[in-house]
Sequence to fold (270 residues):
Amino acid sequence: MALDSIFGIHGAALVARSRRAEVLAANLANADTPNYKARDVDFAALMRGQLGESDAGLVKTDARHLDLGDSRFFGAEVLYREPSQPSLDGNTVDTQTEQAEFVKNAMQYQASLRFLNQRIQGLRSAIRGE
Amino acid sequence: MSLFKVMDIAGSALSAQSLRLNTTASNMANADSVSSSIATTYRARHPVFVTMMDDLMSFEGESAGAGVEVRGVIESQAPVRSIYRPEHPMADENGYIHMPNVNMVEEMANMMSASRSYQMNVEIANASKQLVLSTLQLGV
Fold:
């Protein structure tokens, strides 16, 4: 019985959530930085990267093609958010949206934690034979 | 672990915003500081925020989040206010005193924005602290 099969997808989800939290925190930290563009990751792609099923991404078929290697983040591409109310200083961070996304992400992280905890408790009661 | 990185990012924003609050406080405190020459008159100071680009560039496999830093503090180039008041002890030989170019309305707006941003980043740091603590409690 491998640990991975006990915890299922939740371990990977936890890591992916914490990485997304980082991107969202960066958006909030740069809410007053001129020319900063709000970013986010495609969670499904991040999850696939965590599970080792990374997207192939862009393939170079010619030596003169530009290297895009550093635009990927744990197998997921970091994308730019569509600005809803861009400001004159070139900043596209919408604080309310980002804060809501951050809270949502944190709650989903806690949900994953809850799932893991319940698995551990289940195992523990099985081991003790209670 | 990424959640510690969230703390770093929120922390960088806290120090940047507190510097912004600091310059605002300095500008408001000196709004009425009189001087007898244009060169020595206090000028409004404003911080310049930039994203920590070196973090941003190396996000492959490491981090996609970048904090904020203060590149420098610039002085406002708006003209200082010169007022004709010959009886003033600080008046120059032509009878003018020079007042700083601080715009109080602008400074108040800046102060509100900085303190709201500061509060928001404290919330972010707190939220990530909670997440780290509950992760440490996993299975207990």
